[in-house]
Amino acid sequence: MGETRKTIKTTCTLDCWDSCSMLAEVENGELISLKGDPRNPVTGAALCEKGYNHLKMRTHSERLTTPLIRKEGVLVESSWDEALDLVASKLDTLRKDYPATALMHITSAGNTGIIKRLDQRFFNAFGGVTTAVGSLCAGAGNEAQRFDFGRCLHHEPTDLMNSRMIILWGRNPVATGQHMVPWIKKAKEKGAYLVVIDPLHTETTRLADLHLMPRPGTDGALALAIANIIDNEGLLDMEFIKNNTLGFDEFRKIYDGFDPGRASQITGIDEDQIIDLAKAYGTNKPASIILGFGIQRYSNGGDTVRAIDALGAITGNIGRKGGGVSYNNHVTDHVFNKAPLTAPQLAVHKRTYKIARLAEEINTLNDPPIRFIYTARANPITQNMDTEKVVKAFESVDFKLTLDMFLTDTAKLSDVVLPVNHFLEEDNIVMPPSNHSYINYCNKTVEPPRGVKSELEILNELAVRLAIAEFPIKTAEEWLEEAMLPLKVKYGIDIEILKEAPFKVPEVLDIPWSDKSFHTPSGKYEFYSHTAKKEGFSPIAEYREITAKRSEEYPFYLLTPHLRGSLHSQQYVLMGEDHTPTVYMNDSNAQRLGIEDKELVHVSTEKGKIEARLSIDTNIPEDRVKIYEGWWLQRNGGINRLVPEVICQMGLLAAYYEVVCKVEKIRV
Ligand SMILES: Nc1nc2c(c(=O)[nH]1)N[C@H]1C(S)=C(S)[C@@H](COP(=O)(O)OP(=O)(O)OC[C@H]3O[C@@H](n4cnc5c(=O)[nH]c(N)nc54)[C@H](O)[C@@H]3O)O[C@H]1N2
Ligand SMILES: Nc1nc2c(c(=O)[nH]1)N[C@H]1C(S)=C(S)[C@@H](COP(=O)(O)OP(=O)(O)OC[C@H]3O[C@@H](n4cnc5c(=O)[nH]c(N)nc54)[C@H](O)[C@@H]3O)O[C@H]1N2
Ligand code: SF4
Ligand SMILES: [Mo]
């Protein structure tokens, strides 16, 4: 046998801001190492810890390699034929007895590659099932920027080199998308002033020249006060406002009510600091605002993003090198044709459910009720709100099928579990995420473990068993080629070229909105959005208090942000058996409650109670505590037991951080 060491181009498919271009070293069919592909200048040669950990995840001893079927209450190993025959017969019965909408399709972003959308085609061809609307993630901000700009466009991190000031607002890139960090550091070396606005100390706030800590969910008031001060100081860019925006006078009426004193009362930030920040933002141009998703996980989240967008517009920072209000990046419509993968025209029936109210929807959907839940690339038992209610709702449904690599909390509650490929074991394409505009091919690097199938193979086998003609049997490559046809026709980029190297999406302006041609109905930046009004929202950004109020009984805001070492619940499997969450609390609170560091405590909300281990953190303000999300319920985690199903209407977003709690010593 000859020498077979190869370097194969692939891409991290985790739902991260970065979607790193990767290179895999493969020797004699074994994966030896992973590294970043420097041909993508934004993500470069280094991966994050989770990226390198894909090697361990792929070969983890807990990885599922056999289908499981529930028999007499217990999940037992089965053959593929038995499992697929069972699933096919359940699907067949369902379509005979009900409209196909008796099936609920739950997917999330366990893998961001486009081939995964094929299950939409499958279910549309099956008859049209109950599908999700709304968001667990970024939905409110996406809608906000649709109202303001027409769509979301993100400056590339390389553009931070042109910024004199950077405001990271509710985003923690050191933990959640680290490839922005070198550019932030370089910008600082060039003299940029870095402000971080976050109610918690984080890995990122350590880099800040100024860290402001608003009370959770109050940033809208802060932004309106900044607008007020900028106006009073004569720092408005009237030329930009006049030429490129709609509805400024209405917006002015809103921010007139927010003087620094009022904003200070609402946010808990010193008046002087608010004034200094406003003056700094109004004078240091260009200034870039980089918004995170943390900022909008509240019932007022959409309006918060709209109020902050407006700061970019009143100072003329929009469409400018080194400026902008960057949030998300929707740049690929013209190079990607979803239609072959999703085929919405095939659906005979249509019904939607709000993903942020999953349990409520399962419980109340009728005519037909939900009889079958199909979950892929998602772990709703751990990640959706109000775990207890979700568990009960799942238990009430006749048949649950989960496709995953691990026996997650959701898989564990299912009737059939099918083990699927790791992304390194299959072909796929990943569209640009927020941080850059490169499309990346994921070449299959190695064979999957024996006993594992790709999702496409599973869908193919079910389509044959159910004789679904509109789900023709094709390879991943064939489907991908169809979806990428615009790229080939318009730019001559065929799949073989894409397989070789990261490819920058053509016709994307280096600086978003530099042509001042906004995608709103008026073609202008819209402080006042008729579209928002038509859709039932305030036409202008306004500030409303969140519904969660601290009280004597529940004295703390509970923040549950993302952990650096895991993508949601996914890499917690590397942490061993004990998933008792850590709750971070200020030392004076701990003293008052008579709790020692590392002691077990109860954390409770109106929804539920969990056990957690206390970690004293002097940096946390007295009115809030922090627990990272993602800990597995089956291992004593499950922090969403504490979180009620509160929703932000804009984007139908799960308002995860809108909750108050208490912490108590466990008395034995
Ligand atoms: N390591 C790791 N990386 C990830 C993920 C992960 O789970 N782990 N998840 C990925 C996904 S799906 C997403 S959506 C992104 C999210 O990426 P980010 O938006 O960076 O992360 P979040 O943890 O949602 O929130 C960011 C920050 O917002 C702060 N925050 C909370 N409430 C408020 C508020 O009221 N005002 C302000 N100003 N700030 C607030 C939090 O304290 C937190 O530090 O990360 C992606 N990357
Ligand atoms: N309290 C609280 N809860 C939160 C958040 C928060 O900040 N606080 N953040 C929310 C956010 S932003 C998000 S995006 C959601 C994420 O919610 P989910 O996407 O449900 O969370 P993950 O834990 O990433 O689950 C993805 C699952 O997909 C599996 N998987 C990976 N690749 C594949 C594949 O190719 N095929 C299949 N079939 N499965 C695969 C993984 O093993 C994993 O079990 O969580 C939300 N939940
Ligand atoms: S998780 Fe994000 S930063 Fe880490 S390797 Fe994957 S894409 Fe890159
Ligand atoms: Mo997310």
Structure description:
With 668 residues, the protein is α/β, with parallel strands linked by helices. The chain is built from 24 helices and 29 strands. The strands form eight sheets. A six-stranded mixed beta sheet has the order 5-4-17-16-15-6. Helix 3 crosses helix 19. The protein is globular. The mean pLDDT is 97. The structure holds ligand MGD (2 copies), iron/sulfur cluster (SF4) and molybdenum atom.
Category by helix and strand content: alpha/beta
Radius of gyration: 25 Å
Give the biggest beta sheet.
Answer: 6 strands, mixed
Bound molecules: ligand MGD, iron/sulfur cluster, molybdenum atom
Helix content: 25-40%
Flag low-confidence runs: none
Number of helices: 24
Cross-sheet strand order for the largest sheet = 5-4-17-16-15-6
Overall pLDDT level: 97
**Number of E strands:** 29
Q: Note the overall shape.
A: globular
Strand content: 15-25%
Distance between the termini: 66 Å
Concise structural overview:
This protein is α/β, with parallel strands linked by helices and 668 residues long. The protein is 29% helix and 19% strand.
Give descriptors for this structure.
668 residues; alpha/beta; 6-stranded mixed beta sheet; 24 helices; 29 strands; 29% helix; 19% strand; globular; binds ligand MGD; binds iron/sulfur cluster; binds molybdenum atom
